[in-house]
Amino acid sequence: MDRLSLIISIFTGSVLTGGIAIAAFSLGYYTWVAVAVAAVVGFTLAWPAAYLISQRIKKDDPEWEPDAEPGDYGYVPPRDAPEV
Prior knowledge:
Elements: H1 3-26, H2 32-60
């Protein structure tokens, strides 16, 4: 369970959606379809992008020491489980 990526996904979703919408507007697509496509793509890519950012933050942090290995608890770890 990667709690940091859940928080970062809020920011990555808005950044991706906004960037795609701005790109569509700058290319002359001023329709609701362009906004809907930007929203769907931003929503779809928000968590994977946040997960990659989270892993890079943890990899570059010299103080980070995970208490558990990925897969120790299955798909849904207990609430008091350490961060992976």
